[in-house]
Amino acid sequence: MVFLSAFIIGGLICVIGQLLMDIYKFTPGHTLSILVVAGAVLGSIGWYDALIDFAGAGATVPITSFGNALVNGALNEADQHGLIGVVTGMFEVTSSGISAAIIFGMIGALIFKAKG
């Protein structure tokens, strides 16, 4: 049942993104931004954590989870360090994922030859 709920929720998030591009003709960049902001808004009102509890990886893998992570990091650090914690919290929580993407992208660029 856990796999089914993860598949359904993750698929619905992807369907929403695809509909934004197909129906409203948003660019991929606009769609990405909308999904990140939606995850941040849902995280700020506490609904995204409930979605993660229900769907597991179906809610933590899509880009909406990035927005949720930004908000959670900012709010946690703001509680401890005040206003400066809002900025540092976002970077602290997301830095490992962004660093991994940069490092693995660089390794991929070194191993494979780009065509074009």
Mean pLDDT: 91
How many helices in DSSP terms?
Answer: 6
Q: End-to-end distance, in Å?
A: 45 Å
| Helix fraction bin | over 70%
Oligomer: single chain
Provide the domain count. Answer: 1
Q: Largest beta sheet, briefly?
A: none
Mind telling me the C-alpha Rg?
16 Å
Strands, total number: 0
Q: Return the string of H and E elements.
A: HHHHHH
Coarse shape: globular
Keywords: Membrane, Transmembrane, Transmembrane helix
InterPro entries: Spore_V_AE, SpoVA
Protein name: Stage V sporulation protein AE
Transmembrane segments: 6-24, 31-48, 93-112
How would you describe this structure to a colleague?
It comes from Saliterribacillus persicus. Keywords: Membrane, Transmembrane, Transmembrane helix. This is Stage V sporulation protein AE. The protein has one domain. The model has no long low-confidence stretch (mean pLDDT 91). It is built from six helices and no strands. Helix content is 84%, strand content 0%. By secondary structure, it is an all-alpha fold.
Task: Using brief descriptors, characterize the structure shown.
mainly alpha, 0% strand, 116 residues, globular
